[in-house]
């Protein structure tokens, strides 16, 4: 039989590993990854998924140049929030809102807000988007769904109403699942399979957030 690719073997091993063993497996994988950005990115995301935010922050500081800018920003903001430094994460995200927000930045901050709800950052993001009124953002249905999920997680009802209207414009059809999806996202985190079938269209990043 063909050998199992290292990333799949790692994920499988982590499923059955005790916490201390999982940490060692991940640190060994990071050392073995070398300058392979894809392998390093997966290992760092798994560090966060398994609760090792401090180790992820140390890694990001030590190996900054081994990450693409977008990946570094996503991982650092997520690690800061997971480590309990929500105010610092918000402060580091704020410069991204100093000028017009691109679709890439809007998606990045949406995913951050879904994983780590922060009403203050959400309010700043939605205020900036209202100021910009960028057609590239407003007409991107998948991005609008990500923003809708971020607004729901942050309990921002005004933003929810605006984004629901934008979605109807972007897709040409009513977002019939909007209220149900918002209600699910406002609840404490649980198995995402409850509401994932309602999200269409959606990016793979959003589905995994």
Shape verdict: elongated
Largest sheet: none
Approximately how much beta-strand content do the residues carry? under 5%
Mean pLDDT: 85
Helix-strand topology string: HHHHHHHHHHHHH
Low-confidence stretches: 191-198
Q: Helix count, per DSSP?
A: 13
Helical proportion, percent range: 55-70%
Rounded radius of gyration (Å) = 18 Å
Number of strands: 0
Distance between the termini: 33 Å
SS class = mainly alpha
Topology, element by element:
Elements: H1 6-15, H2 19-33, H3 37-49, H4 53-62, H5 69-82, H6 86-93, H7 103-115, H8 119-132, H9 135-138, H10 141-153, H11 157-171, H12 178-185, H13 204-208
Helix pairs in contact: 2-3, 3-4, 3-5, 4-5, 5-6, 5-7, 7-8, 7-10, 10-11, 10-12
Report what the structure shows.
- The structure is a single chain.
- This protein is an all-alpha fold.
- Helices cover 68% and strands 0% of the residues.
- The chain contains 13 helices and no strands.
- α3 packs antiparallel against α4, α4 packs antiparallel against α5 and α5 runs parallel beside α7.
- The chain is elongated, with a radius of gyration of 18 Å.
Summarize the structure.
The chain has helices at 6-15, 19-33, 37-49, 53-62, 69-82, 86-93, 103-115, 119-132, 135-138, 141-153, 157-171, 178-185, 204-208. The protein has 209 residues and is an all-alpha fold.
Keywords:
209 residues; mainly alpha; 68% helix
């Amino acid at each position: 039989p063909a050998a199992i690719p290292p990333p799949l073997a790692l994920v499988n091993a982590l499923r059955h590993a005790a916490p201390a063993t999982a940490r060692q497996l991940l640190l060994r994988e990071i050392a073995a990854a070398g300058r392979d950005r894809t392998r390093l990115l997966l290992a760092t995301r798994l560090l966060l998924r398994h609760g090792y935010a401090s180790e992820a922050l140390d890694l990001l500081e030590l190996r900054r140049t081994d990450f693409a800018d977008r990946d570094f920003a996503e991982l650092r903001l997520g690690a800061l929030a997971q480590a309990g430094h929500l105010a610092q994460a918000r402060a580091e995200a704020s410069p991204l809102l100093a000028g017009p927000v691109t679709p890439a930045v809007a998606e990045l901050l949406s995913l951050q807000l879904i994983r780590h709800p922060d009403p203050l950052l959400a309010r700043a993001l939605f205020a900036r988007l209202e100021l910009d009124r960028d057609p590239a953002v407003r007409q991107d249905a998948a991005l609008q769904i990500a923003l809708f999920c971020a607004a729901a997680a942050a309990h921002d009802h005004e933003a929810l109403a605006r984004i629901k209207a934008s979605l109807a414009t972007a897709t040409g059809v009513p977002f019939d699942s909007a209220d149900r999806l918002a209600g699910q996202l406002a609840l404490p985190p649980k198995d995402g399979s409850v509401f994932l079938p309602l999200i269409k269209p959606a990016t793979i990043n959003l589905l995994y957030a």
